[in-house]
Amino acid sequence: MSHLDFLAAVRADGAALAAAARRGLDPEVPTCPGWTVADLVLHTGMVHRHKLEIVRGRLAAPPSPWPPPAPDRRELLDWYGQGLDELVTVLDGTDPQTPVWTFHPPDRTVAFWRRRMAHETAVHRVDAESAHGEPAPVPAPLAVDGIDEVLDVFLVPFSEREAVGGGGETLHLHATDAEGEWRLRLLPTGVQVDRGHAKADAAARATASDLLLFLWGRLPATRLETFGDPAVPAAVRALAAEATQ
Q1: CA–CA separation, 94 and 96 (whole Å)
Q2: In the prediction, which pLDDT does 85 show?
Q3: pTM exceeds 0.90 for this model
Q4: Residue 74 DSSP SS3
């Protein structure tokens, strides 16, 4: 994870999201049913500002009251750009090991938000571009780290709180354009994640970007090369959908 420049990713994907939005705010976002591009820009801008307040204020709890008033539609893109710039500036100027509130108890430092905002912005950049055509993929190194994040930060903790109902079924995920392999085992009360190559009841092969977007519900399993029991990828995707809400 440490070799990735998360702030450069936030800058690049944040700017690309804005560029897509300038092509039109009214189209529906196919990867976010019920949202227009304007809704997506507002959401992403609010997420950026939320983390900006946490880091800038060295907060030990989420900011309250929240959210602030939404901008006028005519000012939406300028408002979004200002928040993005401030977020990157504050993250860049703060020691990553500074303690702050996060929703992930194992890591309550600014470093967590650097990583989280890189992946949040990348996925929503894909959303914005998908409203105007075929989106560019998430760069493979960032996507591999994003898969790790989905599994470790969202799926595994969620599965420890909620009954999974698994019976030991396994899914092998294999990135075809980067070093990245994972095996997930669905247990009655959790999901076990191992790194590396291993046999499984089902397997899914794709670029790291497509695997990441599958876990985030942006691509169907039919876009992956799958083998074995088709119910297992479907079960993992359903769990990931709940965990990342």
Answers
A1: 6
A2: 98
A3: yes
A4: helix
Between CA 72 and CA 210 the distance in angstroms is 35
Q: What is the pLDDT of residue 2?
A: 54
User: For the segment 20-58, what is each residue's pLDDT rounded down to a tens digit?
Assistant: 999 999 999 999 999 999 999 999 999 999 999 999 999
CB neighbourhood size of 157 (10 A) = 18
Which value, to the nearest 10 degrees, does the dihedral of the CA atoms of residues 238, 224, 202, 175 take? Answer: -100
Among 127, 208, 146, which Cα is nearest to 4's?
146
Residue whose tokens read 């939320």: 50
Alpha-carbon distance 137 to 209, whole Å? 6
- The alpha carbon of residue 21 and the mean position of all alpha carbons in its chain are separated, in whole angstroms, by 19
Nearest to 173 by CA among 163, 164, 185: 185
Q: How many of the other CB atoms lie within 10 Å of CB of 220? A: 12
Residues contacting 171, CB < 8 A, separation 6+: 183, 184, 186, 200, 201, 202, 203, 204, 232, 233, 236
Residue among 181, 120, 158 at smallest CA distance from 239: 158
Q: CB-based contacts of 91: which residues, under 8 Å, 6+ apart? A: 7, 10, 55, 110, 113, 114, 117
Could you report the per-residue pLDDT of 154-190, keeping only the tens digit for each?
999 999 888 888 999 999 999 999 999 999 999 998 9
